[in-house]
Every structure is written in C-alpha cells, then in structure tokens.
Amino acid sequence: MLWFVPLLPLLAAPVIYGLGKRWLGDDRGRAALALAGVTITVATLLLASVAVTADWGGTYRWSSLIVLSVGMAPASTVFAIIVPLIAAPIIVYSAYHEASSVSDGGTARSPVGLVALLTAFVGAMELLVLAEDFVTLLIAWELVGACSWALIAHEWQEAGNLRDAAWAFLVTRFGDLGLYIAAAAVFAGTGSFAFADLARLDGWLLDVFVAGAVLAAAAKSAQVPFSPWLFAAMSGPTPVSALLHAATMVAAGIYLVIRLHAELSAVAWFAPVAITLGLATALAGGVVACLQGHAKKLLAASTSAQYGLMWLAAGAGFPGVALVHFVTHAFTKAALFLAAGIAERHVGSYSLNAMRLGRLLPGVAAAAMVASLALAGVVPLSAAWSKEKIVTAAGHQASWLAVIAAVAGGLSALYATRFQLLAFGRKRHDRMSAAVSRSGHSRAEAVALYLLAAGTLVLSLLWWPGVGNSLADLLSVHFPKAKLWELIVSLLLVALGIGLGAWAVRREVSSQSRQSEKRADMADWFGLPTLSERGADAVMMFSHGLARFDDRAVDAGIRGSARFGAWLARLGERRGEGAFDGATNQLAKGVDWAGQVARRAHTGQMHHYYTGIAAGLAAILIILSIGALL
Fold first, then answer.
1. Which of 225, 393, 496, 574 has the most crowded Cβ, counting Cβ within 10 A?
2. Is beta strand 58-61 parallel, antiparallel or unpaired with respect to 67-70?
C-alpha cells in the first residue's frame, strides 16, 4: 500500500498536463489547475499520514537478489509529510505566478507544464524518502535529478537557462557517482542492497560506503565545494526555487545523512568530516549571502549555509536536531522565496536595491518579516529553537565549535536583516511609481505566502515547555541539553548580526555605489564558479589534445593498414587476375596430359594387363629379396 504515496503524484502529473492543456489561461483555468495540483498533493499528504498510523510497507521482487522496498522510518515519516505540506501552497502560487517576466511585456506562458512537473517532483521525492534499499533509492535519486533539470530549464527560451540547468545537473551528477559506489560496496559486502543489512558491512567496504554516501549527500545539499550550483539553479521560476530549496532537491542530501546516520557514524572519520563540511559551508554561505545583491541568490546562499548547520548537527551526533531544523527551515525558506518572487513581479528585477516595497505591499512585507526573523534566529520563532539546538549540539563536541556555530547564526541574522530591509523596507525610492504601475501579484500568491508564514508561527510552539521533549519521544531522537552561556552568546551574536545588517543596508542605500569587483567575486562563492570553469576548460583542452593524438598516432596505424589493403586490392585487380588465370590454365593442361598418359595403359587386351601384373609382382619380389639379404 505504501507504494501509492509516491505513485499517486507521479502518475497524476501527466494527467494534469494532458487535461490542463485544454483549460483556458484565464482565472478560471488557473483556479482549476491549482485545484488539481493541490488535490493531488493533499491526497499524497493524507496517504502519508495514514501510512504512519497503519504501519504501511511495500516490496517488489525484481529478481532473486534485487528486492525494491519502501517503509516508514522516523526520518522518512517527517520528510514524507513535510514535502507535500510545503508543496501544496507552492503549487497554488505556481498556477498564478506567470512564467514569463512581466517586466519584458511578453505574453505569459501557460503554467500547466510547471504545475505538472512540480507534482511529479513531489512524487519523486516521496519515493526517495520512503526507499528502504539502495536500488529504490537510486531510482528515486535519478528521478529527482531529472525533475530538477527540467524545472530549472523550464523557461528554456531564455538565454543561458539551458546552460545553467546543465551546470547544476552535471555538478550534482558528479556527486551521484558516490551513491552508486556506496551501493556497490554494500552489495559486495552483504550480498544485498537493503538498508537493514548495512549492519553486516565492515572493513574497508564500510569506509568506501561512507565515502560514497558523503560525496553524494554533500553535492546534493550544496556543501562546499559544490555550493555554486545553487546559483545556476536560480534560473528556474520562483516556485521551483522555493520547492527545490525548501523540501526536495537540496533536502535529499541531508535526508540521506539523517536516515543512515547510525551506519555512517560507525566510521571514525565521518564525524570530523561532517562537522568540517558543515561549518565551512555555514560560514562561507553566510558571507556570500551577506554580500549578495540578488534576492534569490542571497536566499540560495542562505540555503547552503543552513544545510551546513544541519550537517554540523549530524556530525556532532544529533541527527534529530538536523531533522527539526530541516522542518523549520522548509517553511521559512519557502515563504522567503515566494516573497522574493512577488517583489520581482512589481519591480521587474531581483535586484534588492530596486525593491524597498514595504509601503506598497504591507501584507507581503509582514509575512516576509515573520520568515526573516525566524531565519535570523530571533526568539521565540521556530527556526531560532532549532538553531539554538544546533549550537548546543556543537558544544557537546567542543566549546569552540559552539562559538563558531553561534557566529554562523550571527551571519544568518545579518543577511536575513539585509534581505528584509532591502526587499521590504518602507522608505520610498524613485522607482516606486514604476512598481505601482505593474500588474503585480494575485491574491492566490499572497495566500500561499501567508500559509507558509503561518506554518512558521505554528512551529514556534517548540519554545513552549515540554513540547521539545514530547517531539523527541515521538521521533525517537535525542535533543542536547542547552547550556546558559551558549544561549547567551548565541543571542548576543544574533542581536549583533541584526544591528550590522541594518547598518549595512543604510550604507548601501545612501552610497548607491557600484559593487566592487572583489566584492562581486566574493558574492559569487569566492570565485569558485570561475575556478571551476577554468578547470573545465583545462580538462576540455586536455581531452582535445588526447583526441588529436588519437587521430594522428593511434588512428595512423589503422589508416595505414587500410591503405595497404586497398593497394593489394588494386594490385590484384591489375595483375593478380591474369596470374591466377594463367596458373589455372596450366594446371588444367597438366591434368589433361596426365589423363592422356593414363589412358594409354587401357588398351582393352587382356594379355597386356596380365603382363603388367606379372611385372609388378616381380618388382615386389626383388625388393623383398634385397631387404632379406641386407
């Protein structure tokens, strides 16, 4: 029965696409499309909820060695519910959020394909989080990658979108090789692909498995040095960015770490590697977000940084903390992306310096402020609770780790403040009249944003006494006990980050100076994309050199052999035919002569035959006599 959870959205997506093409592009058609997408998503949510209570499972025997299976582990349960819960308002938003920019005056594209792809994306992610073996996981992993490529390249007519989609796809594909290596190591060590048999894995195969899984998860969750692919993914429409960053593509990496944490932590080097990756990404992503002037790229760098904090929690031995932070971050980040999309509709650009829409969009600004404050870690909002638990988890490893994690939290407060004040500040600017004149956003888009902001507020109940302990018991996880000094230091750094963010915004608004080249490089992941491009160019040059060597050296012998064969064929055509015909004629003449000689003995007279026989017998007797004498 559990197979119905991922299969429902996967099979419904082409139906939505086929039927949706017949609907009109007016409000009624968009409402029908949104209703269809939300109905499938909510039905998936209900099925997942029933599966939890009914303890559903599912297996399919592919062969004697390969059995596909799905099940409900605690981490699977959380992800299976959160994915459609986040996707539902995003699908409503996508049905009304025009795919073509209002700023260019172009005709809006039909959102049918976008809604269908988002629905399929939900199904692929559900299959991924429910998988109980590596074959099923790999199938879902590939589906998620294919859906993300199609969604990023959805507006393929725009210059560069196909290139960006290919860039994001190739970077994550490189990491995907690690999952194949991990699956091969598991099968070699246990004779099975099932997660349940991982406990039998040991020795060097266990190290290979952990290394492959870490590579795949780090690439998918955009950890350093894979982080820049998130900027390429920003070429996709706003709803794609919201779902990809909040609950699907990027979340797949941290899900793998949480789901297999017991097996991964069996290797001594996993914890320091996970902590190092997480801290490096949280700090680097925070700095990049603080310097970014592009709204969606700021949020993308923030996503990388927040998932870095989740890696830190998992490396410190508290995957349950990472799981809760995923939930709080999902609502927060989805809301901020939708708010950025609404702002772009009014100013025709994702440049933060072109926005300041607080007076024009007070409701949107208020919803965005709830999400921004949560991202900043302001008590008593939801993401602040899980962020403080991450600081405490780091402190269980070492006090200095807690301080660095708190610094990363301070950077979160800084870039969240920048985003809110630049995008939805209340000060008017000279572009306000142009913003007012644009068609802007629909009520459905605003409602989707309000629902996600409301989810952020509801999750703030985590601060209520006893709720955290009840949640830990429900999920069968363990939360670390907070230390007072860690909480004080963390909150002070949050306040400092907010203050520095407000100061930075005043300076940016007053100076309006052009961004320096050095700052632009730092804002673009410290030049990593340029470095990667140069590395790719070097690899391509080396490949072209090998191809030329192959053409000139390796293929030269083959071409020489071909020319020699052709020469022999021409020689045979000119001279060989006559020589062979002459030899055949001479052979025929010899046979004829021998036949004539043989016929001479056949005279037809009996005394000739007897004479020949007698002569032969005499010759034999002579030979025998000579042999006896010798």
1. 393
2. antiparallel
Whole-model pTM: value is 0.83
- Amino acid type, 12: A
Instruction: Please say whether the beta carbons of 222 and 229 come within 8 A.
Output: yes
Backbone dihedral angles phi then psi of residue 355, each to the nearest 5 degrees: -100, -100
**The two three-digit tokens of residue 435, written as one number:** 């913003």
DSSP letters, 595-616, are HHHHHHT--S-HHHHHHHHHHH
Query: Residues 80, 48: contact at Cβ < 8 Å?
Result: yes
| Whole-number Å distance between alpha carbons of 3 and 624 | 97
Taking each helix axis as running N to C, give the angle between helix 319-347 and helix 467-475, from 0 to 180 degrees, rounded to the nearest 10: 110
The distance of Cα 342 from the centroid of its chain, to the nearest Å, equals: 26
CA distance 254 to 613: 104
The identity of residue 522, as a single letter, is M
Structure tokens at 168: 């994001």
> Are 365 and 424 contacting, i.e. CB atoms less than 8 angstroms apart?
yes
Determine contact, residues 494/377, Cβ cutoff 8 Å.
yes
pLDDT in tens, 57-72: 889 888 878 889 999 9
Question: What stretches of 97-160 show up as alpha helix (H) in DSSP?
Answer: 112-130, 134-152
CA distances from 609 to 355, 436, 603, 612, 621 (A): 126, 130, 9, 5, 19
Q: What are the phi and psi torsion angles at 294 (to 5°)? A: -100, 125
User: In degrees to the nearest 10, what's the CA dihedral of 80, 81, 84, 90?
Assistant: -120
Query: For residue 107, what pLDDT is reported?
Result: 47
Distance between CA 360 and CA 93 in Å, rounded? 20
pLDDT of residue 270: 96
CA–CA distance, 310 with 302 (Å, rounded to integer): 13
Q: Yes or no: say if 312 and 392 are a contact pair by the CB < 8 Å rule.
A: no
Given a cut of 50, is residue 100 above it in pLDDT? Answer: no
**Is the pLDDT confidence value at 239 over 60?**
yes
**Do the beta carbons of residue 417 and residue 372 sit within 8 Å?**
yes
Say if CB 115 and CB 40 are below 8 A apart: no
CA distance 260 to 467: 26
* 8 A C-beta contact, residue 115 and residue 37: yes
Q: Which two tokens stand for residue 573?
A: 């055509």
Q: What percent of the chain has pLDDT over 90?
A: 55
Tell me the C-alpha distance between 422 and 411, whole Å.
16
- pLDDT of amino acid 625: 73
d(CA 260, CA 130) in angstroms, rounded, equals 13
User: Residue 210's Cα: distance from chain center in Å?
Assistant: 18
Task: Give residue-wise pLDDT tens across range 536-593.
Answer: 556 556 766 676 776 667 667 777 777 777 777 776 666 666 665 666 677 777 767 7
Q: Which residues contact 217 (CB under 8 A, 6 or more apart)?
A: 175, 252, 253, 254, 256, 257
Is the dihedral angle over the CA atoms 21, 24, 26, 29 positive or is it negative?
A: negative
Q: Which of 295-304, 440-449, 591-600 has the lowest mean pLDDT?
A: 591-600
**Residue 99: band (very low, low, confident or very high) from pLDDT cuts 50, 70, 90:** very low
- Cβ–Cβ contacts within 10 Å for residue 107, how many? 9
